[in-house]
Design goal:
Strands 1, 2, 3, 6, 7 and 8 form a six-stranded mixed β-sheet that branches. Strands 4-5 form a two-stranded antiparallel ribbon. The chain is built from three helices and eight strands; from the N terminus they run βββαββαβαββ. Helix 1 packs parallel to helix 3. 25% of the residues lie in helices and 32% in strands.
Length: 146
């Protein structure tokens, strides 16, 4: 995820999701991901204190600053480059499993955030634009919880 001043996703020249200040969440669904992974990620994303307080210290959550979330599905996060020059995405969930899992993840994020979450369209060719704020970019993996 990236802390942003603004972010948007466009599909075939048409806007699909847009936010002002908040978080751009690029989310991949793994073949072995389950509801516990989804719920942990949603809670963690919303609770992380990565927004500045009045002293400039990262001490506020997205809820506290009233920010938005743009969630974009991205199976390429599961790329394995162990062999050869062409990545393998065998660890990513198949689309028929990943699409509903991503929708449930977006719903969990919205519930934790207390407002709707902007999205792209699962499986579409998307153009994602953002103005990174900081920059602050954080990798979260539900299988390596920290």
């Amino acid at each position: 995820m990236q802390r942003v001043r603004e972010a948007s996703v466009t599909i075939a020249g048409r806007p699909s999701g847009t936010i002002g200040p908040g978080l751009l969440v690029l989310a991949g669904v793994g073949a072995s991901d389950d509801d516990n992974d989804r719920d942990w990620l949603a809670r963690k994303i919303v609770a992380l204190r990565i927004f500045d307080d009045e002293t400039g210290t990262m001490n506020r959550s997205i809820v506290e600053v009233g920010g938005g979330i743009l969630a974009v599905s991205q199976f390429t996060l599961f790329a394995s480059t162990k062999k050869g020059a062409r990545p393998s995405w065998s660890a990513a969930a198949a689309p028929e499993l990943a699409a509903p899992a991503f929708e449930r993840f977006v719903a969990a994020l919205a519930a934790a955030l207390g407002k709707p979450v902007a999205t792209g369209v699962f499986g579409a060719a998307m153009q994602v634009a953002l103005v990174n704020d900081g920059p602050v970019t954080i990798w979260l993996d539900s299988r390596a919880r920290e």
